[in-house]
Amino acid sequence: MFLRGRTTCRLSVRNVHPGNGLLLSIIAAGLPSLLRQGLGSIATIILNSLAGIHGDEAVAAMSIVSRISFFIFSVALGVGQGFQPVSAFNYGAAKYDRVRDGFKFTLLIGESLMAAAIIAMFINSENVIGLFRDDPRVIEIGTRALRLQLISLLFLPLSMVTEMMFQSSGHSSGASILSSLRSGVFFIPALLILSRTRGLAGIEEAQPLAYVLTFFPSLAFCIWFMKKMPRS
Fold this sequence. Notes:
The chain is 82% helix and 0% strand. The protein is mainly alpha-helical. The radius of gyration is 21 Å and the shape is globular. It starts with 19 loop residues before the first helix and ends with a helix.
């Protein structure tokens, strides 16, 4: 419809004038998302390779845990993405108090929703793993790994909402750093080190450790941003 000119807004190649500044700003805005997904994919490959050393049961258990954890992770991601347009509009309009209020509200909602999901999932961890694979060894490995991840996911909303606030306010470098910390800088080394020192238990503990470690730089970034942002 756009190409045929049947809408009010028409697309035309003649109106495209890409400049270096525009291209760089587009790349910078999308870089945090690229790092979040790209490093996450690399980490998943490494995780499956290391788990494979301990047998098919370990691979199956960690794959199940990753899927369940991503379901809860999506809550924080969705809440953070919902905050982005609010943050971008009010930051651009110099309504900084609304950015602060929106951040606090989003963080509260994110923590509340995740806490409810985590408690329900923690209590029923064995049953949830059993829904995917009726194997005692898979359930044993998966239950411990899932419970560790569920506890650490409570540290995620602050990191996610802070990252989205940086990205939506034009501070793409800060958002890129936070994305890299959680998905790669902390997680991948933790996988490689803990898998050597603690075996399968270390593989189970790597992602939770990465979430906890990412919380502290995120808190520092958040405090710095709030202090730097003027009052409306």
